[in-house]
Each structure stands twice: as C-alpha cells, then as structure tokens.
C-alpha cells in the first residue's frame, strides 16, 4: 500500500487543503486558498516537496498561510528545484518556514505579508516565523511590507543576513507596534553560527557581507544575501520613516496613502494596496452595492458595484466561492 501514499496525499492537497483559481479581471493573478498552519504534522520526507509544490505551485496570491517545512537537500548535496515558489507576491495570513535543511529558500516576488491572522508564538502574534532551519539564505528581495504583527526567529544558526543585515523598520507598516524577536536563550540563539563580528554589528563586517551595489546606511550594508540581486529594497522616506516615498530614501515625494510597501514610476503606481485594488488602482474600499442618488435623494443600486475578494474588487465570483454581500466566502469557510 505504500506506493499509494504519494497519490493519496496529492489528492488530499488538491481537494481539501488548496483551492486554485483565476480572476477574469486580473488574468495575471492566480489566487490559492490554503489551510496549512505550521510544521506540527509533517508528511513523510519523500513526498514533502511534492506536497508543497501542489499547494503553492503557480500561485501569485496566497489566501491563508504560506507554510514551508521539512525541505531537504538532494542525495548529491544540492538543493531541490524550488522555482515553483517564485511567483508568490502576496500572503494574506502569515509565512511559516521551519525545519528545512536546504541551503536557500527564495521567494523573489513576495512583496507583502499581511499577517491577518498571525501565528501565536512566544506570547505574541507573528506574521513571519522562521524556526529550526539550517538555512543560510532566505531570499525575500522584494519584501517591503509586513502589514501587521511581528517576526519571530528561533534557532536558525546559519541564517546570518536575515539576522543582521535587514532593516526591519523599512518593512514594518507600524514600527511602534511591530518588532523583530530573535530567540536569545542559551544554546538555541538564532544565528549562533554566524561570524562573531557580524553578531556584534561591526559596521565593516555588515557592510561587506552585502554586495557593493546594496544600500549602505550609516556605514552598514543591507541585504538578504551576498548576490547583487539580493539587496534590500529600502522604499521608506528618509525624512519620514512612517511613509513610503517614490524612489525611497532618495526623494521626499510620498506615495499615495492607499499604497502598501511603496510605489514605482509614479506616486499612484503602488507595489501593493493597503485596503483594496479596483481596476488596478488602490482604493479605501470596493464600490459598495448601494449608493445615495443625489437626484432621487434615496438609496439606489450601484451600477459600479464589485465584490471584495480578499482586497481585490471583482465583478464576478470565482467558481469555488459563494457570494455574501459585499465580499466572498469560500464554500469551506465557516
């Protein structure tokens, strides 16, 4: 019966724990509803990679959580092909990366972690949990916004850049309420295998651990790894670190209020939307079902009405959802 196990797991993933669908107004978006929680219920090692690929392969927007656990190196010592993760841009819940022995996990397109809901750990709610990995590089080169909740790092002794060459204030939406929480307990200190000079924040050491093209602020370099494409994007205003500016620290022109994680080419060209996206523009809410007619002085149906599909305004329901004005509910949701 063992030969049936991979097939059964794949069917379970497709039919029970992951729904994938496209949105007609936004053909480039592939939204995936995933119910994974953490690494507490691992799959057999020989099918774990296949399982994760079926959950997240081809997805751009994760409705739920991005959970990557138990990835191992191949027999020849190299990392497996994880390119199926490269299109993920937006995670509505949290990102949990744990118990991986590969050298590198790359999520090069991930712009936003919304952290709703967060993962309860260490008396806090986390939007990003990095736990018990032997990773050396976690490449989040496009990440410029964690909208709510904290970051918790536990026992990742070789994950040096993540621990010491990232300016988290550039990524947190609210620096007064969010924080980076590394484990400082004896024998389980996160990043314990990193160079001691790096752990002491020596300016020269942190600067030179990043490529020369990466930003250097107050003598310190900022990056996710040693390659030039792994530089940290620093898009908050130099004169107001609570806001994002067009061009980041180089300008004082703010992005529009509804932008999340910065803007590109012009203030209204947002990298992501804080509340909702309608016709490619960021808005405070989707067009409601009813509006007040000035001519008739009464409430009438709104001809521009759109449903709110997890912060995306759409006219039509994807096949796997049911409508409940003014937003969608999945058939499997309570």
Automatic annotation (TrEMBL):
Localization (cell): Membrane
Protein name: receptor protein-tyrosine kinase
Membrane topology: Single-pass type I membrane protein
SUPFAM superfamilies: Growth factor receptor domain, L domain-like
Signal peptide (UniProt feature, chain positions): 1-18
Transmembrane helix among keywords: yes
Gene name for this UniProt entry: SER
UniProt xrefs under InterPro entries: Furin-like_Cys-rich_dom, Furin_repeat, Growth_fac_rcpt_cys_sf, Rcpt_L-dom, Rcpt_L-dom_sf
Top EC class of this enzyme: transferase
Recorded GO CC terms: membrane
EC identifiers of the protein: 2.7.10.1
Domain Receptor L-domain: residue ranges: 58-171
